[in-house]
Write a structure and sequence with these properties.
This protein is of the alpha/beta class and 443 residues long. Helix content is 46%, strand content 9%. The longest helix has 25 residues. Keywords: Methyltransferase, Transferase.
Length: 443
């Protein structure tokens, strides 16, 4: 029987329960499909919030949306007024809760942001080498990799790099930590390129080409790596493994008793099931039902896009909504019709061209004499509505991401791990900057 830190487990559970309660209370505001709405769906319940949102100038919406604290500061007074009228009280402080404030198991890494943790560029690589070592890696990705390694506890264990791609993360770990790295990736060409990089640098890194979803669940010390690469004497790492991929890592590591785990979760909505399957006992008992659409909420924060990209994004949404209004009229069916992904080049033409393309994609018969300018204006007005629906929903994006992260932390706690969570890089480098560290407790 593993001796779990009951105090820390109680704290994890309490934080999860608080977030779970807030998300259940506020579900009318965040469990919405903005593209399908013709008005603010919760306006009758929250009239002051509705008035405040419509009073906001369109030009300030992106700036508010980019900063969670600014968004909450702007909208929470109106929300509090509506709650008071309804005789309700929500813990709105949870809307801006940071990873640091979670204060989870800080005994693994005394401070996840501490300068005392060995940096990624020391002691086994100098700045001249670094320029060559990071060749062919995009700047922002390289920043993420170096920051992740900088905050990785030096466990002195061989490393399993999960969903490795070309193994950039594993290669830096092998170089700076001097440990054996096994990098798992399902695309053979990426494995070959990654192995060539490792061989060039004479690093103890080797690749196995395997599908993470095809690996058998039972780890065995004598089994082949293709069967299951997880071992007890090992540190498993994953930087931005999406959805079910990082969940699978946690499940395999827990089953194998892997000594150390370090993951930065990403793309929670990329799951095989239609609805989210909780990992921890608390999440399984929650009253929340989360669809893939709901799970995209934590990802909806525009901190990376430059003004040109933002303008194109707004144009695309207005065009999509304009066509949606048009197709409802043409088909005589008042239902949203989703379109496939749009290439940037398709936004350089006219709205009429876009509608012709979209109609062909969905086999919609367009009338001969359509006033496309009128339908585009309808699209722009609907965009003003959807942006405000989304802005209210975004109040809860941090709370939902923390709920999902705590589900993973609680699962690891229940599996006999001591857990810590924090930020491994600035939000400007990537909004998906949570780092979960777990260390197996002694039997």
């Amino acid at each position: 029987m593993h001796q779990i830190n009951d105090h820390n487990l109680d704290r994890l559970a309490a934080q999860f329960i608080q977030l779970d309660k807030l998300l259940e209370q506020g579900r009318a505001l965040w469990q919405v499909r903005a593209f399908e709405a013709k008005s603010l769906p919760w306006q009758a319940q929250f009239p002051t919030l509705a008035t405040t949102l419509w009073a906001l100038d369109d030009a300030v919406l992106d700036a508010l949306d980019a900063e969670q604290s600014a968004l909450v500061d702007a909208l929470s007074p109106a929300l509090k007024q509506d709650l008071a009228t309804l005789g309700l009280e929500w813990d709105l402080a949870l809307l801006t809760l940071s990873f640091a404030e979670l204060s989870l198991g800080s005994d693994i890494a005394a401070d996840i942001g501490s300068d005392d943790i060995e940096t990624a560029t020391s002691p086994n690589i100098d700045l001249v080498e670094l320029a060559h070592f990071s060749a062919h890696i995009k700047g922002r990705k390289w920043e993420q990799i170096t920051a992740f390694v900088q905050h990785l506890p030096d466990a002195g264990l061989p490393v399993l790099e999960w969903c490795a791609g070309k193994g950039h993360l594993g290669r830096l770990i092998a170089k700076t930590r001097g440990v054996d790295v096994l990098s798992l990736e399902w695309q053979a060409t990426l494995c070959e390129e990654g192995q060539a990089f490792a061989d060039k640098w004479q690093l103890s890194q080797r690749f196995i080409c395997a599908d993470a979803f095809a690996i058998e669940g039972n780890a065995c010390e004598n089994s082949t790596h293709q069967t299951n690469p997880f071992r007890a004497q090992q540190q498993a790492v994953a930087l931005h493994a999406c959805g079910d991929l990082h969940v699978r890592l946690l499940q395999f590591a827990a089953a194998a008793g892997t000594q150390a785990v370090a993951i930065s979760p990403c793309c929670y909505h990329l799951i095989q099931a239609n609805q989210y399957q909780g990992l921890s006992t608390l999440a399984q008992q929650s009253g929340l039902t989360l669809t893939r659409h709901d799970l995209q909420l934590p990802l909806q924060q525009s901190v990376i896009a430059n003004p040109k990209q933002q303008a194109l994004r707004h144009q695309e949404i207005a065009w999509r909504l304009g066509f949606d209004a048009l197709q409802r009229s043409c088909r005589g069916i008042d239902a949203y019709l989703p379109l496939p992904a749009v290439k940037q080049s398709q936004l350089s033409g006219s709205f009429a061209d876009f509608c012709q393309w979209a109609a062909a994609q969905k086999t919609v018969n367009l009338a001969a004499n359509i006033d496309f300018d009128a339908w585009l204006e309808i699209g722009k007005q609907r965009q003003r509505l959807t942006r405000r629906i989304d802005l209210a929903a975004h109040l809860f994006r941090r709370a939902l991401e923390l709920w999902l992260i705590l589900d993973r932390c609680c699962f690891l706690q229940e599996s006999g791990y001591r857990v810590s969570v924090g930020e491994f890089c600035a939000n400007s480098v990537t909004p998906r900057n949570a780092l979960i560290l777990a260390q197996k407790l002694s039997d």
